[in-house]
Amino acid sequence: MSQISTSRDQGLGAEERTRPYLESPQTQRELYRRSLLVVVVSQVFGGAGLAAGIAVAALLAQEMLGTDQLAGLPAAVFALGSAAAAFLVGRLSQRLGRRAGLSAGYLVGAGGAAGVVLAAVVGSIPLLFASLLLYGSGIATNLLARYAGTDLARPEQRGTAVSVALVATTLGAVAGPNLIGAMNDLAVGLGIPGLAGPFLLAAAAYLLAAVVIFVFLRPDPYSIARRVAAQAPAEVPVVVTATRKSARPPARHGVFIGATVMVLTQLAMVAIMTMTPLQMREHGHGLGDVGIVISVHIGAMFLPSLVTGVLVDRVGRIPIALASGVILLVAGVVASVAPEGSMTALLLALALLGLGWNFGLISGTAMIIDAAPPATRAKTQGAVDVLIALSGAAGGAASGMVVAGSSYAALSVGGGILAVLLVPVVLWGRGMPKQTTRP
Known about the structure:
Low-confidence stretches: 1-13, 234-250, 432-436
Shape: globular
CATH architecture: Up-down Bundle
CATH class: Mainly Alpha
Largest sheet: none
Strand content: under 5%
CATH topology: Growth Hormone, Chain: A
Number of strands: 0
Helix content: over 70%
Oligomer: single chain
Order of helices and strands: HHHHHHHHHHHHHHHHH
Distance between the termini: 39 Å
């Protein structure tokens, strides 16, 4: 009986601790800002874990497999792992909150990165791909974390909130590839194959991200947002015509359009990015040059986010999504015509590739948040990110085969053309009535 009484008291204590967040809009705003800060810190570590491994995964596979044709497989494998993790983390977040889902996802990613190091040491191909599958969990979690900062954001703040989280990723994501040389030397000094060194950094970074989320993301913003929405009086949706630049697609179409934008931009970006390090190595560039190009690319993926978020909120989701497709097409063309061995042309192409992806991700994410009701938002977001991860897997798997059967230039042009297909889908949603959900 005493144990039952204690459990009830603890439950009442938890209820009392969360009550102010349900009753006071000011307290909700404070929790929103605090949650966003926690997400920002975790994204710094998560970005380092993401970028460090991605930058050398194809090179490590090339070294262990002894062939270029299958060098795109690592991107496909950890993208498949990312898809599975996006589904599971989304469901876990739906059931237990962002804190449980995100911290678990980062821990699995850390274990996968450590497994890659072990696979390189023992020379095990099966262990390498099994570990890359788990490493994909960190990638998915790092991407899903962008939603945690938006749970208590007002509709007009959502694009900006997403962008703040992505900018934080820049710090780690840019630092990660630039540490390739240092981690290579550290690994060699420890008797580990040099290209496995960045995965040591990835394991530590994902572990730190998990600790930050688990310790500091409380009370859970998604749980509070669901309870706030559940106790709010029912409102008749306000529908207005989407004649202004800032108009958004209606809820019933928002998920489809947002998902299409993010899937196509991810597919094009991953395909071109995966083969760029191999293209550079074949034309005499060292790991330092590869690290610089990938750092610029990842910086362009995340650093413009503060401006992009403001544009998405003020100019509109649809115009920024359209710009994404055009920029990715230009990126593909520039990469295809780049002179062999030209660092300048590749830097420009990969910077545009990152910028186009950034525009697509933030505008598409805002459409998803607008469209998904709080009661099922985490599950919907996870399902959409499954599609994003699968598109990345397809891009990674196909990229090596396309280059082996044709050329890097053909891959680049094809990726750009594929991305611009989002334009007719987005235009289909233009001019429809607008309806957005509250936190």
